[in-house]
NADH dehydrogenase subunit 1 (Anoplotrupes stercorosus), 29 residues
Amino acid sequence: MFLGDIILSLISSLLLIICVLVGVAFLTL
């Protein structure tokens, strides 16, 4: 794997985690 692919996968994983956290926080409000 190239370094760019690793960075892209990390960014997509972080975005997914952030979306889940925001969704949970929004539902619990």
